[in-house]
Amino acid sequence: MLKIGLAGARGQSTILGFKAHPDEVEITAMCDLNEEVAKAAAEKHGIPKTYRIFEDMLESDIDAVVISTPMQVHVPQAIAAFEAGKHVLSEVTAGVTMDELWWLIEAVEKSGKVYMFAENYCYIPQNPVVRNMAKAGLFGKLYFGEGEYLHCITDRLMYADGKRTWRNYWQLGKRGAFYPTHSLGPVMQWLEGDRITSILCASSGQNRARELGLRQDDSTLTLCRTQSGALVKIRVDCMSKRPHKMDYYSLQGTKGCYEAPRGLGDEHKIWLDCMEGDENNPKWHPLSEFYDEYMPERYKNATDEQKAAGHWGGDFFLVDDFLDAVLRGAKPAIDVYQACEWTAVGLLSELSVTNNGRWMDMPEFRPNLPLAEQVIKL
Hints:
By secondary structure, the chain is an alpha/beta fold. 31% of the residues lie in helices and 21% in strands.
C-alpha cells in the first residue's frame, strides 16, 4: 500500500483522484497550520492522521507527499520531502525565485525520487485531444499558440480573522505574469519537444490594483519565443472585474487551427485544410467530431468516479501519471525541468515588465546544468 501525505488542507483537488485509483494507494495523513481546517478536511475524507508541522508528517510512514500549500513554500517543502526520502507531487508554481528553481533541480537529481508538477490544466480532456491531433500532424507545422488565465482573486486577500493572506505578496504583490503555468502548460505540450528561449512581458499598468494598494499589473501579456521559432502568447489577469475565463487556448499551424470556447454557447472548435468544401470558405467544425479517434483511451474508459475528480476529471489522470512514475518507474508526465521552465516564464516576466518590456533569455533547464549556466542574462 502506497501511503500519501497531503500538505495544505485547502488544496484537496487530488483527493478524489487518489480515491478513485485502482492501485493500492491511500491518503493517510494531512498537514495544515490551521489545525481546525486540517481536522475538518481529514474527517470529511476519512484521513486517519493530521499534523500541524510539515516535518512531523514527513517523519511518519508516508511514501509520497502532495504539496498544495502557498506557493512560497513549495520548494522548501519539496526539498525537505526529498531529504526524508519521499516522492513529491507539487502544485503550481514550482517556486517563487530563480534560485529556488536551481535548488529544486539539484534536490530532485540527488534524491532519486519522483518529482512531478501538478499542472492539472494539461489534463482538461480537450487538451490531450488537441495534443494527439498535433502529434498526428493534422495542424501541420505549429507556429503560434496562446493561453489565458482571467480570474479575479481580490476576494482572497483577507482571512476570516481579518489578517492579510499570502496572496497580497506572492501573487498580487508581484508584477508580471506571476501565474503562467495554467496558460502555458497545455500549449507547450502541443509544441512537444520544443523549449522556450526568451520572453517579453508588457502590462496595462495598475488601475484597480492602485485602488486596492497592490503592486500586480491589472493585466499582462507575455510573449514566449521557442527554439523552433514558434510564438506563444499568455494573458494573465487576476485583478479585473469580469467573468472568469481560466482555460482559453488557441493553436495555429500551417494546415489548421484550434480555438477553445469563450462563453455564451461557444464550443471547442477546429479547422483543417483537409476538410472537404472548406478550401475557399473555411468554417469551424466542433472538436467533438474528433473525440472518438483522438481522445486518449484512458479518458474513454474512465469510471464515473474517476470522471468526478476535479477539473473535469483531469485530476484523476494527473494522479494516474504520478502513480505510474512512482510505482512503475515511468518518466514523470511533467518533470522538474518542464516545471522550472514554465515557472521561470513568470519570474523573468517580472524583470521584463519593470524594464519596459525587455526581452529576457530563458536558461535551458536540463539535467546536470553547470553552475556557470545558472544565470539570468541581461
